[in-house]
Write a structure and sequence with these properties.
226 residues, alpha+beta, three-stranded antiparallel beta sheet, 47% helix, elongated
């Protein structure tokens, strides 16, 4: 049956080129139990197929299922996740901006203060901890909004169709928390909420963050990047 499977998918050019080497090794030394995931061509294009191998008293039972929709959803989920922080990543950020059509959008733009200083003086492990700790802080304050880690020291919160009053209260409270509840603010903050073009809203929040960063450097000049 493995010889037939090999002929059907491999020799008949139905198997995706990326799967050829692994597939050949798998069919040459098949396991007694387990599963194998591969892409096979049909009339709809490349379809992801799950082959399950189950032992029986006469050998094995091979069962195939088309899992394209399920697998594609899982791939998108994996591609959207920032593995260091558990937040959404830049891929998800650009996708969600592109999918936005209309409505109220709130943006909080954050840039960590002193990440380079931390890496240079305390080491990259402490720098990574700094990033993870700030991500946890964002989760605590904006758990019901979308939170993205878009670069080493940049984070963005997007709130789609929030109550404007509630969003502003929370954004202002978070900004005050940075300056009043921390000896050295972990991040510079900018925020905006509107119904205009989403990139314009983001730009306004980023510009506000830049102004906040200038104030931070005036108060804490030792953190200025060199």
């Amino acid at each position: 049956i493995y010889d037939y499977w090999h002929w059907f998918c491999y020799d008949s050019n139905l198997l995706h080129p990326d799967n050829l080497k692994e597939f050949a090794e798998f069919t040459e030394h098949p396991p007694a139990e387990g599963f194998y995931l591969y892409d096979r061509k049909d009339g709809k294009g490349w379809q992801t197929t799950l082959m399950e191998i189950t032992p029986s008293n006469k050998g094995v039972i091979l069962t195939t299922r088309n899992v394209t929709d399920i697998y594609s959803a899982e791939v998108i989920k994996i591609k959207s996740k920032d593995h260091m922080t558990g937040l959404l990543n830049k891929f998800a950020y650009e996708r969600d901006i592109a999918y936005y059509k209309s409505g109220v959008v709130g943006v909080v733009f954050c840039d960590l203060n002193g990440l380079k200083y931390t890496n240079d003086t305390l080491g990259h492990e402490e720098g990574d901890k700094f990033i993870v700790d700030f991500a946890s802080l964002l989760k605590a304050h904006f758990a019901d909004y979308k939170i993205y880690h878009i670069s080493g020291d940049e984070f963005v919160v997007l709130a789609f169709n929030p109550t404007i009053k509630d969003f502003l209260q929370r954004a202002v409270a978070f900004h005050k928390y940075m300056w009043m509840n921390q000896k050295v603010p972990m991040s510079s903050i900018g925020y905006s909420v509107d119904t205009s073009d989403i990139r314009s809203i983001i730009e306004y929040a980023e510009n506000m963050m830049s102004d906040d960063k200038k104030i931070f450097y005036m108060k804490f000049p030792m953190y200025v990047r060199k």
